[in-house]
Amino acid sequence: MIFYFTGTGNSLYAAKSIASRQGEKLVSIAAAASSGKEVYEYDLLDDEVIGFVHPVHAWGPPPVVLDFIRKLKLRNFQGNYVFAVATCGGSAGNAMKVMARSLQAQGLPLIGGFSVIMPNNYIMMGDVDSDQIRQEKLAAADETLQYIHAAVARKAQEWKVSRGRLPWLTTGLIYPMFAKSNVNTAKFHVTDGCTGCGICAKVCNGGNIRLRDGKPEWGANCTQCSACLHYCPSRAVQYGNATGKKGRYVNPNISIVEISKGKVLP
Q: How many C-beta atoms surround the C-beta of residue 184 within 10 A?
């Protein structure tokens, strides 16, 4: 069973690849989180592997992922192999240690931990990668995923994570500030180029976007995934003055239909 959270498709691509090779089913964390349930219960098969695949937000797991784990109940857990994969633009900091603590609190020891470097997408601060760097990262990501497939198949007790410089500082100081301060959704807006297609609402992880008079409105339940920015076909969705001149990126191997299936629409 592979639990995944994704914004622009990088983590879903990794999760699909792993699930296919391991013969496991995919479970959307976003869909579960939007269900309103107090507990997320799942039945495990004997010797079933348990994976968590998620992006890195400011050198830590997205808060929605940690909240999901706190409410997670796995029936018939008998020391199954538990692993996590963090997708990141460059480094994951100590995100895997945060995941390990969260899982351990639920009686799920993290045995395998891995990171996969993929194209950048957090344009509210930085920018997307150039086309050349994007292609290089995607090619390298496939090689990394092959390594992860083999490690999971043999149930390796191994952490192979690109932590970057000063992970104790990035995850220990920057990540808590990021996690505690939600994105100011009042800064989201659309330009005159908005066609009212509703794609932003379809890809929203939190069911946080609704159309009013053909234009999107953002609520307060933002997961900071930036999918609405990147999937807008007319690039009309903006965040303050920070994104107007920035590029856009979605994983080329993941369709908008696949992204939307993992969400609960308002």
A: 12
Q: Coil, helix or strand for 56?
A: coil
The rounded percent of the chain whose pLDDT value lies above 70 is: 97
Integer Cα distance of 75 and 262 in angstroms: 23
Q: Are 94 and 168 in contact (CB under 8 A)?
A: yes
Dist. CA 50–CA 37, nearest whole Å? 21
Question: What residues are paired with 3 via a beta bridge?
Answer: 27, 52
| Whether the predicted pLDDT of 265 surpasses 50 | no
Give kind and range of the element (H or E) at residue 230.
helix 227-231
What is the rounded distance in angstroms from the CA atom of residue 207 to the CA atom of residue 34? 7
Instruction: Look up the pTM and report it.
Output: 0.94
Residue 266 scores a pLDDT above 50 = no
- Residues 214, 173: Cα–Cα separation, whole Å: 41
State the Cα–Cα distance between residues 204 and 219, nearest whole angstrom.
11
Q: What is the C-alpha separation between 109 and 159, in angstroms, rounded?
A: 13
Closest CA to 255 of 1, 28, 16: 16
Q: Is 214 helix (H, G, I), strand (E, B) or coil?
A: coil
Q: Which residue in this structure is represented by tokens 């995850």?
A: 171
Single-letter code of the amino acid located at 13: Y
- CA gap 224, 21 in Å, rounded: 30
- Cβ(201)–Cβ(263) under 8 Å? no
**Confidence bin at 112 (pLDDT 50/70/90):** very high
As given in the structure block, the two tokens for residue 140 are 């390298």
Determine the pLDDT at residue 263. 65
DSSP E strands, the chain:
2-4, 26-28, 40-43, 50-55, 72-75, 82-88, 112-117, 158-160, 188-190, 209-212, 215-218, 237-239
